[in-house]
Design brief:
The complex is a heterodimer of chains A (307) and B (462). Chain A is mostly helical and 307 residues long. Chain A is 75% helix and 1% strand. Chain A contains 13 helices and two strands; from the N terminus they run H-E-E-H-H-H-H-H-H-H-H-H-H-H-H. In chain A, helix 2 crosses helix 13, helix 3 packs antiparallel against helix 10 and helix 4 packs across helix 7. Chain A is flat and about 95 Å long. In chain A, 32% of the residues are buried. Chain B has 462 residues and is of the alpha/beta class. Chain B contains 20 helices and eight strands. In chain B, strands 1, 2, 3, 4, 5, 6, 7 and 8 form an eight-stranded mixed sheet that branches. Classes of the chains: A mainly alpha (307), B alpha/beta (462). Chains A and B meet through helix 1 and helix 5 of A and helix 1, helix 2, helix 5, helix 6 and helix 12 of B.
Chain lengths: 307, 462
């Protein structure tokens, strides 16, 4: 009897193992790819951040020296500051614009498909092309369209936009909001369409006005969407590189301290100066920041999911 | 159960990853170590001792008729016009030698070459050296053969390279011979000078004369502007004008010498003589497009632009600058005309080369007089110049026919845009940033120079 049970157990275990192996074989291609191309480099970067390496000569362990170096480098500190400033402004503004657009284009208005396409277009347009157009509109010359507008309509003095250290971040943030709000608008639209009409009808019967409906129905119902959008936006903001390079790099590719962001600093240290250790250390700092921000957001999500 | 498998799998990949990571890190070490020992000049006597041993392995080294196959590392085989003619010219004289081209791609050529030569598996006989920083890093790795003894033995005349070889001599040793060299000249649009009734630029102008000339053809009327000068956004167009008197270099850590040039260009910018840096930068206007607009009277630029101009005018793409010419770079007071900036492309023999003697013979040929003629006939400026070479380039269809343009190709002394220095890329970062700030008029010239001095001196002190 007991022997029979153990034999059955063994049989079941064998079958379970077989099932598991089949399952693992299905995820293996993906996982092996991940391990070789993502996990490996991540682990290597972790090791490199404590070492000095130029990519060819022998690697030298230097402890925390890389971190001491980068925190003593004013270019790193400037890039850290710029990244934080960029994220602090871009995330809420993009969020608000995307939500506003989504609500507007969720109404029963004529040609809403057309306007949705208009709002989404900047997101699909090639960055290089739209950045070039943007730089033409916001050219520092007095003859530029935006500067003409400033001078003739608002009677303000012309700005140098991306060419001046005081307005370059403003230009980059405006561009980024304009380029990305369409994408997040689409996500919000999906969220809006998931809200049951009955809720609004019930509120209408109770005499709620549009603002009350928005505050008490739309916003709470959109919480999961907002959570997702905030996280994606924040992570994307910390990863920003291409926009900065295209707008501020210009024809000679020189991004100075006023516009340099973390990822650009990492690129420059790693592939221009061949200081792979220092670049890895900066990447680790970037990773830590994104991790902390995301953890805080998850904590927040838990809290408001409970009420 | 599942979890255990997953975690053990994860642990395994981590172990594997760290092993491969360590492997790739440790690999270059043994290769670099022994190589490093023959880098110092003192080891030179050991070289000939190593030679005979090599010859025993490969008896084909003797100029016999035994077939030898050279492997040549280079980039952009399909779009570069001079590789095959060079090979053809060499193999015509040495029928027993064949040359195999190995294209490593242009974008990360120096990195790929460095990695290939670090391992023990490379069998390149000849490698092309793309730029000076790449050269320095290969020399530091100890993978290039010092050429001094061979140069002395074969009586190669280095003076024909206009002093460039001195600037890539590291600790008394030369590891490459340049075969292509681009020099900086002043391009000008003859139509603008004709219309303004001003005499053309000459081959012997000081910077003051150049400034006056540029201003004399400038027209700031809105809508029909004529710019007397044009400076592309690179720092080299302004900063490096200061090193042409031979008293300073760009890696010294003291940049006071750039001041007069910044002041000249900023004044021109203010007076509308040249286009505004901020606009040029943000609009990303390419220098060729600027010159092609036909409202730029003069522009300082490298000789690589000659081939572009000839081609685009031939194709009918450029119609407003068809009447162009070149003159020598302007010079500082009391300095001989014809001093200019240059960039070089060179050949070297790796320490691991299987056929060193034949490889050296090929390098000597390509960078020497015969190779120079082949280069010139394809419209490229060889590193070694003489009258015949100048005749060949100036005789090309589409090259300006005036004597001054031909004369402009003759240099008296050339200075590398970036001399051999370990810290060149970090120095460049500091210089680029301050150049940007000065040209945007965000900092004064004095403050910008002070920041350059401070930043570069800190890098040099490391």
């Amino acid at each position: 009897m007991a022997a029979e049970i153990s034999a059955m157990e063994k049989n079941m275990k064998r079958r379970a193992r077989k099932r598991n192996l089949v399952a693992y074989s299905f995820i293996a291609p993906n996982f092996i790819g991940f391990a070789v191309f993502t996990l490996g480099p991540i682990v290597l970067a972790l090791l490199l951040s404590f070492a000095e390496w130029d990519g060819s000569n022998a690697m030298k362990f230097v402890g925390l020296q890389n971190f001491i170096n980068i925190f003593g480098d004013d270019r790193f500190l400037a890039s850290l500051k710029n990244t934080v400033v960029y994220s602090l402004f871009t995330v809420p503004v993009t969020l608000a614009m995307a939500l506003g657009l989504a609500i507007l284009l969720n109404q029963k208005i004529k040609g809403k498909e057309f306007f949705r396409t208009v709002a989404f277009f900047p997101y699909v347009a090639s960055l290089v092309a739209v950045a070039a157009v943007w730089n033409m509109l916001f050219t520092p010359a007095k003859g530029g369209i935006v500067n003409q507008l400033l001078m003739n309509v608002f009677h303000a003095s012309p700005l140098k936009w991306a060419a001046s250290s005081s307005t370059v971040m403003l230009t980059i943030i405006m561009f980024s909001v304009w380029k990305n709000m369409g994408y997040y608008m689409v996500i919000y639209l999906a969220g809006l369409q998931g809200i049951s009409e009955e809720l609004y009808e019930a509120a209408g019967l109770d005499g709620a006005n549009a603002w009350q409906k928005f505050i008490n129905i739309t916003l709470p119902q959109l919480k999961p969407t907002t959570f997702f959008v905030t996280i994606m936006l924040t992570i994307n903001c910390f990863k920003v590189y291409d926009i900065v390079y295209m707008l501020a790099g210009g024809s000679n590719g020189v991004v100075n301290k006023s516009a340099m962001v973390l990822v650009y600093y990492i690129y420059e240290e790693a592939f221009r100066n061949w200081k792979l250790g220092q670049a890895s250390a900066s990447a680790l700092v970037l990773f830590a920041i994104v991790l902390v921000v995301t953890l805080i957001q998850f904590r927040g999500e838990k809290n408001y999911a409970n009420d | 159960m599942k979890k255990r498998i997953l975690s053990s799998l994860l642990a395994m990949t981590m172990v594997v990853a760290s092993i491969t990571a360590c492997g790739s890190a440790a690999e270059p070490a043994p290769a670099a170590e022994p190589a490093k020992t023959d880098a110092p000049a003192q080891e030179a006597p050991a070289e000939p001792a190593a030679e005979p041993a090599k010859e025993e392995e490969a008896p084909a080294e003797a100029p016999a008729d035994e077939p030898v196959n050279l492997k040549w590392a280079l980039w952009d085989v399909s779009s570069t016009v001079y590789y095959q003619p060079l090979i053809d010219a060499y193999t015509a004289a040495h029928p027993n030698v064949s040359v195999e081209m190995v294209d490593l791609g242009s974008t990360d050529y120096s990195t790929v070459l460095g990695t290939q030569l670090s391992g023990s598996g490379s069998d390149f006989d000849v490698v092309t050296i793309k730029d000076v920083p790449g050269y320095v890093s290969l020399v530091n790795k100890g993978v290039l053969e010092p050429l001094n003894d061979r140069i002395a033995a074969d009586g190669v005349d280095l003076s024909l390279y206009n002093g460039v070889t001195d600037q890539v001599t590291i600790d008394g040793n030369l590891y490459e011979l340049p075969f292509r060299s681009d020099i900086w000249v002043l391009f000008y649009n003859k139509d603008i000078f004709d219309a303004a009734g001003v005499a053309y630029p000459t081959n012997d102008m000081t910077w003051d004369e150049y400034d006056k000339l540029a201003r004399s053809v400038t027209d700031t009327t809105a809508g029909s502007e004529i710019y007397g000068s044009h400076y592309h956004t690179w720092r080299s167009t302004i900063q490096l004008d200061g090193i042409l008197d031979g008293k300073n270099t760009i890696v010294d850590g003291n940049y006071e010498f750039t001041k007069p040039y910044y002041e000249m260009v900023l004044a021109q910018q203010k007076d509308g003589v040249c286009m505004d840096y901020a606009t040029l930068k943000t609009q990303g206007l390419h220098y060729s497009a600027a010159f092609a607009q036909g409202n730029v009277a003069t522009m300082n630029m490298g000789s690589w632009f000659i081939a572009t101009l000839i081609q685009k005018i031939k194709d009918g793409e450029y119609t407003d600058c068809t009447n162009w010419g070149i003159v020598k770079y302007p010079h500082a007071d009391g300095v001989e005309a014809g001093s200019t900036l240059s960039t070089i492309t060179a050949l070297a023999v790796p320490t691991s080369a299987p056929n060193k003697d034949v490889a050296w013979d090929f390098v000597k040929f390509v960078s020497g007089a015969e190779g120079a003629e082949v280069m010139a006939s394809t419209g490229n400026i060889p590193a070694m110049t003489n009258d015949k070479i100048v005749d060949l380039i100036a005789g090309m269809d589409g090259f300006p026919t005036d004597d001054a343009s031909k004369e402009a190709l003759v240099t008296s002394h050339t200075y590398l845009e970036m001399p051999a220095n370990d810290k060149s890329s970090e120095i460049e970062t500091v210089l680029n940033e301050q150049h940007d700030l000065i040209m945007n008029e965000e900092v004064s010239v004095d403050d910008g120079i002070a920041a350059m001095n401070e930043g570069v001196q800190a890098i040099l002190a490391q």
